[in-house]
Write a structure and sequence with these properties.
DNA ligase i, domain 1; D-amino Acid Aminotransferase, Chain A, domain 1; DNA recombination; 8-stranded mixed beta sheet; 6-stranded mixed beta sheet; 21 strands; binds adenosine-5'-triphosphate; ligase activity; globular; magnesium; alpha+beta; 19 helices; DNA damage; DNA ligase IV; 581 residues
């Protein structure tokens, strides 16, 4: 008990948990590990490795599989074009080389490490591992990261290194939920985590599972996991779900969910409060909220003092804490009243969303409101229609008598977005490339790069196709498989490090766009009908000037020949006409 816990012990635990069935057995392995190997002072060191995605103490590593592959290749001293290096870089791909492990980066890496690391444990302790991971998170250059990987490889065997990689990728695939881990750790652990998002605090405060923790509510300065909205299909489903309740419908603003924890300064009447809301961009020349997706740019421009017409604007739609009291147990109706009392809006900077007040007060007469009480399903339908006409993202429908609950998606809040109802027209596009999937679909093409035709001369077939978007959802697994199978004979690999593509295709240099395989020529390909959210976005990734937001495959057009693909010019006209410009 006095010794430092070795990584090898944790690795045995992971292996046991992964293999054991049912879930109760997995949980008892975890309990046994805590009781046998950990002192209370070790809890956090261990828990942050068991639940790496919840650890907020360490910064991000900035290491997705592609960069991780290069670090490992260099740390192992492999030549970048050696067979093993290529297998790591092309970890998603199947074929004779990567076999059953394709699509699982850690397994592909373990296979390569196996031949170089031996099986004897490297003796690393979890304390040392955490120190190395801290250094990895703060390392600024790839060379520094590579050096840390070299140290890690020196002090582990291939099994241990495999789990270290999974910890870095923050996905252990243990087949046990974070809820079960928390429950086994302490009966109050999940609650406390939900209102603090602080794993360290949970491990320090809840050392004895027989001692119940005093019910902990939210605190200023500690992030709380947000109340979430449940997706519904249409207004009738929403109305049925909230049958008999007092209901408010609100615009679903398309920005970033942000909690404001205020302690001091004077925009508000109260010195301490927690607001829940959405950060948006306000265009003061147009006097309206700006397009989705510009927040980061605006924040940057505002910081650099560049953009004077656009500014960040916070829309508070809820309040969680006032003065020295949490108000999440009060009803939404009461919280709206508090919000109005506590926050003084500042046009275009800080707005509040409450029915019959707040933001609504700025709406010119006759314009739809941002938030209103719904008395019938017709009210919800009308509000939803106005939202679509207004090109907003959708609506949120809330039970006015509900309390605010961290991490809850049980249906106190419902969301309805036009893309679930099918808006916009179907677009017939041509498959020009494919991307390999991961996990279950590892080694198989699971997504497509689709293109639009460059408008041909009259009576001629198109000769060039312009990359347009990446799409994978919408079809059943079987249908997707059939398409991939039909195209398989025409797939041509986009080999690393060569970057050639067939000359029929126009693409950008953006790395997100590059498919794993190309279709060798357009006349071999298949047309897909795709739909999307009503909005298009200006594209930086693809060669076409616009791309789609949340595209989905509606059906496969085996009946339509390749040359009947929509052309870019018609698509741009469609975008402009539907934007009214
Ligand atoms: P989505 O991708 O649909 O925005 P999500 O998974 O981020 O969903 P959900 O809880 O499902 O989050 O949907 C609610 C989200 O909608 C909130 O996280 C918030 O960012 C956003 N939102 C915009 N306007 C409102 C509003 N008036 N009330 C509540 N949430 C709103």
């Amino acid at each position: 008990m006095t010794e430092e816990i070795k990584l090898s012990v944790l690795v045995s635990l992971f292996t046991w948990i992964q293999r054991s069935r049912p879930s109760a057995k997995k949980r008892s392995k975890f309990r046994k590990f805590l009781d046998t190997f950990c002192k209370p002072s070790d809890y956090f060191s261990a828990m942050r490795l068991i639940l790496p995605s919840l650890d907020r103490e360490r910064g991000t590593y900035g290491l997705k599989e592609s960069v991780l592959a290069i670090c490992l290749i260099d740390a192992l001293g492999l030549s970048r074009d050696s067979a093993d290096a290529l297998r790591l870089v092309n970890w998603r791909k199947g074929g004779a080389n990567t076999g059953a492990n394709a699509g699982n980066f850690a397994l592909v890496a373990a296979e390569i490490l196996q031949r170089r690391q031996g099986t004897v444990s490297g003796g690393l302790t979890i304390k040392e591992l955490n120190e190395l991971l801290d250094r990895l998170a703060s390392a600024e250059s790839r060379a520094e990261k590579t050096a840390i990987f070299a140290t890690l490889i020196n002090k582990t065997n291939a099994q241990e290194m495999k789990w270290v990689i999974m910890i870095i990728l923050k996905d252990l695939k243990l087949g046990i939920t974070e809820k079960s881990i928390f429950q086994e750790f302490h009966p109050d652990a999940e609650d406390l985590f939900n209102v603090t998002c602080d794993l360290k605090l949970v491990c320090e405060k809840l050392r004895d599972p027989t001692q119940r923790h005093k019910r902990q509510d939210i605190e200023v300065g500690k992030a709380v996991r947000p109340q979430l909205a449940l997706r519904v299909r249409d207004p009738a489903a929403a109305w049925k779900k909230l049958h008999g309740k007092e209901v408010v419908v609100e615009c679903k603003f398309d920005g970033d969910r942000i909690q404001i924890h205020k302690n001091g300064t004077d925009i508000h009447y109260y010195s301490r409060c927690i607001l829940d809301g959405e950060m948006l961009v306000w265009d003061s020349t147009l006097n309206q909220f700006a397009e989705f997706g510009s927040n980061q740019e605006i924040a940057k421009a505002a910081k650099d003092g560049l953009d004077s017409d656009r500014q960040l604007c916070y829309v508070a739609f809820d309040i969680l804490y006032v003065g020295d009291t949490s108000v999440i147990h009060q009803s939404l109706k009461e919280r709206h009243e508090i919000l109005q009392k506590v926050v003084k809006p500042l046009k275009g900077r800080l707005e509040i969303l409450v029915p019959n007040g707040g933001l609504n007060a700025n709406r010119p007469p006759g314009e739809p409101c941002w938030s209103c009480i719904a008395h019938s399903v017709n009210d919800v339908e009308r509000f939803f229609k106005e939202t679509i006409e207004n090109r907003d993202e959708g609506i949120v429908i809330k039970d006015l008598n509900s309390k605010w609950e961290p991490s809850d998606r049980s249906g106190k809040w419902l969301k309805l977005k036009p893309d679930y109802i099918r808006a916009g027209s179907d677009l017939d596009v041509l498959i020009i490339g494919g991307y390999y999937g991961s996990g279950r679909r590892g080694g198989e093409v699971a997504q497509f790069l689709v293109g639009l035709a460059d408008r041909p001369d009259p009576n001629a077939y198109p000769r060039r196709f312009i990359s347009f978007c990446r799409v994978g959802t919408g079809l059943t697994d079987d249908d997707l498989e059939t398409v991939a199978k039909k195209l398989k004979p025409y797939f041509r690999k986009y080999e690393y490090p060569k970057k050639m593509q067939p000359s029929f295709y126009q693409v950008t240099n953006h790395s997100k766009e590059r498919p794993d395989v190309w279709i060798e020529s357009p006349e071999k390909s298949i047309i897909l009908s795709i739909t999307s959210d009503i909005r298009t976005i200006r594209s930086e990734v693809f060669a076409a000037p616009y791309s789609l937001r949340f595209p989905r495959i509606d059906r496969v057009r085996y009946d339509k020949p390749w040359h009947e693909c929509l052309d870019v010019q018609s698509f741009v006209e469609l975008v402009h006409s539907s934007n009214g410009t």
